[in-house]
Amino acid sequence: IALLIFRDLPDDPAVEWDTQLLATLVLKHIEAKNINLVVTFDAGGVSGHANHISLYSAVRYNVCKLLWVPPWAGCRVLVLESVNLCRKYISFLDVLISCLLPRDALFILTEEETEQAKRAMRCHRSQLLWFRQLYLLCSRYLVVNSLRLL
């Protein structure tokens, strides 16, 4: 299955993944691990990343077609809100905005959790392009995340 994933689901922001293939893989994982909550991207993929959008499409496909059927009937789905560019890069200042806007869940990270997320991103040196360096400095997603139920 690993070869299938690398060949058919390449890590590439310009490649849309096959919705049914990904939906099947996600559903198998939900069943195998008895998962009752899935957190994924919204239709905007946070940054327009095609892989992120494909994942949302696959999870949405599962919700519409399969998750309402036992044994998956109890699984809920939260999607991460994509925000405009200004909000995306105002870091902790977006906490105020996020608290005022409607959402189903709001996660505000502690300073320790923010630093842990930054350390995790730095482990992938090949991925740290200039815009990801900006992300590490100013992204609201390292401080606050608003989600809604799908």
TrEMBL record:
Any GO MF annotation of the entry: N-acetylglucosaminylphosphatidylinositol deacetylase activity
Q: Which InterPro entries match?
A: GlcNAc_PI_deacetylase-related, LmbE-like_dom_sf
User: What's in the GO CC field?
Assistant: endoplasmic reticulum; membrane
E.C. numbers? 3.5.1.89
Q: Which GO terms describe its biological process?
A: GPI anchor biosynthetic process
**What EC class does the entry list?**
hydrolase
The similarity comment for this entry is:
Belongs to the PIGL family.
Under which name does UniProt file this protein? Answer: N-acetylglucosaminylphosphatidylinositol deacetylase
Q: Which organism is it from?
A: Horornis vulcanius
